[in-house]
Amino acid sequence: MTATSAMNTAISAMYHEGFFIRWPRALKISKLWLLFLQKYSQAVSIVYRRGLNRFAIIPKLHMLHHGALKLLRESQRAQEDGTTWTINPLSESVQMQEDWIGRPSRLSRRVAPRRVHFRVCQRSLISVMQFLKKADKDQRGLFAATRRAVV
């Protein structure tokens, strides 16, 4: 398996889950994640020895390593303790949806110019509240075994 496909599979699996992941699945995800880091390190080493400049954009490998090890440890702990769930690492991520940039822009075109900042903040909070209420009904993390597996 290549580094790219290992990481793509791991990330896809984490996005497919809810807040919690069953420990056997979390163990597989963490091993794929660590495989990516191992293969990436090998590729960097080869390129470095050849004196080439091929990795101009460096991912946050240290942070990725911490995430993979934390998921691995949590899945091993859950297995030993007899518990079922681990916490999805994406629950601690601070990424932003790509379409978020356009949302305040669209909201700002629908309010009066005199109170644009206040109204955009209000409408953004209302929008977030609606999405959170919708997410309350999301059962992915609770019934993970009933769905088709990605990993």
SSE diagram, text form:
Layout: H1 3-16, E1 20-22, H2 23-50, H3 61-81, E2 85-87, H4 102-108, H5 116-136
Antiparallel strand pairs: 1-2
Q: Could you characterize the architecture of this molecule?
A:
The protein is flat. Mean pLDDT is 82; it is low at 142-151. The longest helix is centred in the first third of the chain and has 28 residues, at 23-50. The protein starts with a helix and ends in a 15-residue tail after the last helix. It has 5 helices and 2 strands. It has helices at residues 3-16, 23-50, 61-81, 102-108, 116-136; strands at 20-22, 85-87. It has 151 residues and is mainly alpha-helical. It has a two-stranded antiparallel sheet with strand order 1-2.
Number of strands: 2
End-to-end distance: 13 Å
Uncertain regions: pLDDT < 50 for 5+ in a row? Answer: 142-151
Order of helices and strands: HEHHEHH
What is the CA-based Rg, rounded? 20 Å
Tertiary shape: flat
Percent helix range: 55-70%
Strands of the widest sheet, in order across it, are 1-2
Oligomer state of the chains in this structure: single chain
Task: Name the beta content range.
Answer: under 5%
Largest sheet: 2 strands, antiparallel
The averaged pLDDT comes out at 82
Alpha-beta content class: mainly alpha
Number of helices: 5
